[in-house]
Amino acid sequence: TKPLRDLAAAKGKYFGSAMTVTELEDTQNRDLTAREAGVITVGNEMKWDATEPSRGQFTFTGGDRIWAGAVAAGQRVRGHTLVWHNQTPQWVQDLPADQLRQAMLDHIREVAGHYRGKVFAWDVVNEAFEENGTRRQSFWQQKLGDGYLAEAFRAARAADPDAKLYYNDYNTDGLGAKSDAVYELVKSFKQQGVPIDGVGFQSHLLLGGVPASMRQNLQRFADLGVDVAITELDVRMRLPADSAKLATQAADYGAVAGACLAVSRCVGITTWSLSDKHSWIPSVFPGEGAALPFDAAFAPKPAYQALVTAF
Ligand code: XIL
C-alpha cells in the first residue's frame, strides 16, 4: 500500500510526524518517517530552552539537523514553538515585565528569522488557556497580561512574512469552554487585524475519547477564515495494549482523520512521533502508552490501517 504522505496528498492534505534528534539517529525510525510523513514538526529542538539557553546566545544545531533531514526526505517543516510556559529557561521566567517583553520579541525575531523560508508554519504561541477558558496564569500572563499573544503574532509576522502563523493548544479538539476561548481569541485577532493564519489542535486523546463535535469544532474555526490542523495526534491507553483496545484506537484515528477530511480548510494531520518506541506518553502519563500508529518494533498497528482507509 501507498505511504500515508501520498494518500493524504491525493486528498489535498498532508500527513506528518514529530521528529527529534534522538529519533533521527534511530535509523529504522528515520526511514519509516521518511516513507510515511510528508511534513515534520520539530519535537523539541526549536523550543526556547534549545534555541536560546542563555540570553542572546542562540543555538540552532538540533533544529538545523532535523530541518536538513526533512529536506533530504522531501518533507516540509513546521516550527514548534516560539512562546510557551514549558521548556523555557529560568532566566526568561525571572525577568521583570519590561525585559521579558523585549526578550520575547528578540527571541521571535532571531528564531523565526533564522528559519525564514525554511519552515512553512510556526506554532507561535502554545497552550495559553486553562481548561475553563480563562488565560493560563503562566509567567507570560502574570507579567505581560492579555496583550502578549497579539504582540507575539505581530513579531512573528515581521520575522517571517511567509510562514503560516498558528495558535496551538490541547483539549480544544471538540466544542467546550477552552475551545470557545480560542475561538474568541481568533475572532478578536481577525477583527483587530492581528496576523493569524491557523489554529492547531494537538489532539492528545484518551482511548475512545474523540469528541463527537470535532468536525463541527474544526469547521467553526475554518469559518473564521483560518486554516486548521491536527498537530500532535496520539491516542493513549492503559498498558498493556490488547486487541480490543487497539481496535478502539483504530476507530479513534479513523474518526480524527474523518473530521479533518470533512473540513476543506483542515490542511493536515500530524502524529506526535510515529512509533510507540519514541512516544512521549509513558514518561508523562505513567502506566499509559501504545498511543501511536506503529508499535515499538515499527510494525503497523490497526490505527495505521485506519489512517490508510480514511485517507
Ligand atoms: C513534549 C515532547 O514530546 C517531549 O519530548 C518533551 O519532554 C516534552 O514536550 N504539547 C506540546 C509538545 O506542544 O511540545 C509536547 O512535546 C507535548 C505536549
Automatic annotation (TrEMBL):
Q: What is its EC number?
A: 3.2.1.8
Per its record, the protein catalyses: Endohydrolysis of (1->4)-beta-D-xylosidic linkages in xylans
> Which key words tag this protein in UniProt?
Carbohydrate metabolism, Glycosidase, Hydrolase, Polysaccharide degradation, Signal, Xylan degradation
Coiled-coil region: none
Annotated GH10 domain residues:
1-310
Q: Where is the active site?
A: 232 (nucleophile)
- Family affiliation: Belongs to the glycosyl hydrolase 10 (cellulase F) family.
Name recorded for this polypeptide? Beta-xylanase
The species is Lentzea flava
Question: Span of the full-length protein shown?
Answer: 133 to 443 of 444
